[in-house]
């Protein structure tokens, strides 16, 4: 029995010695990463209040009258003062003639007639070829709201 214990001790000593020796090789120290610079203080930009875009109808929306056949389409158009109405030729020979005489223009192939209405009111017009004053035949009305 005593020999057995000695044998164990011997083995243990051998193992211990081997571990001690193998640990001799110094491992290079892990490079310590240089402390990163503290993140630059975020710039505090002044808050610029941007007003939301004014929900304004597009200028060319609902201000076009098609001149075609024997009618103005739409026949009645309501706009705001200061808006420009565009009569766009769609076919045939016509005129865009205001009853109050403020405009009177022939409409031929490819014609576009623009007229700006600054004053509120109701403006009747007609085609001299297919209509007449008093909303006869080919005629229309521009209602200008303030
Ligand atoms: Cu006409």
Keyphrases for this structure?
146 residues; mainly beta; Immunoglobulin-like; 5-stranded mixed beta sheet; 4-stranded mixed beta sheet; binds copper (II) ion
Give the secondary structure arrangement, pairings included.
Elements: H1 2-22, E1 64-68, E2 71-73, E3 76-80, E4 83-89, E5 94-98, E6 104-107, E7 112-117, E8 121-132, E9 136-145
Bound molecules: copper (II) ion.
Structure at a glance:
Helices cover 14% and strands 39% of the residues. The chain has one helix and nine strands; from the N terminus they run H-E-E-E-E-E-E-E-E-E.
What does this structure look like?
The relative contact order is 0.15. Strand 5 (94-98) and strand 6 form a beta hairpin. The chain is mainly beta and 146 residues long. The chain is built from one helix and nine strands, in the order H-E-E-E-E-E-E-E-E-E. It has a domain at 64-145: Cupredoxins -  blue copper proteins (Immunoglobulin-like, Sandwich), CATH 2.60.40.420. The strands form two sheets. Strands 3-9-8-5-6 form a five-stranded mixed beta sheet, with no helix packed on it. Strands 2-1-4-7 form a four-stranded mixed beta sheet, with no helix packed on it. It is elongated, with a radius of gyration of 46 Å. It has one helix at 2-22, and strands at residues 64-68, 71-73, 76-80, 83-89, 94-98, 104-107, 112-117, 121-132, 136-145. The chain binds copper (II) ion.
């Amino acid at each position: 029995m005593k020999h057995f214990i000695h044998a164990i001790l011997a083995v243990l000593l051998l193992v211990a010695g081997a571990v001690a020796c193998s640990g001799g090789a110094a491992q290079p120290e892990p490079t310590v990463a240089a402390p990163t610079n503290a993140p630059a203080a975020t710039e505090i930009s002044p808050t610029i209040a941007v007003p939301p875009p004014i929900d304004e109808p597009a200028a060319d929306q609902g201000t076009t009258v098609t001149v075609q056949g024997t009618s103005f389409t739409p026949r009645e158009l309501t706009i705001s003062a200061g808006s420009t109405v565009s009569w766009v030729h769609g076919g045939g020979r016509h005129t865009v003639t205001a009853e109050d005489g403020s405009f009177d223009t022939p409409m031929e192939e490819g014609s576009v007639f623009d007229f700006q209405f600054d004053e509120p009111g109701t403006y009747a017009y007609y085609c001299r070829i297919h209509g007449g004053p008093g909303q006869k035949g080919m005629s229309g009305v521009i209602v200008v709201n303030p």
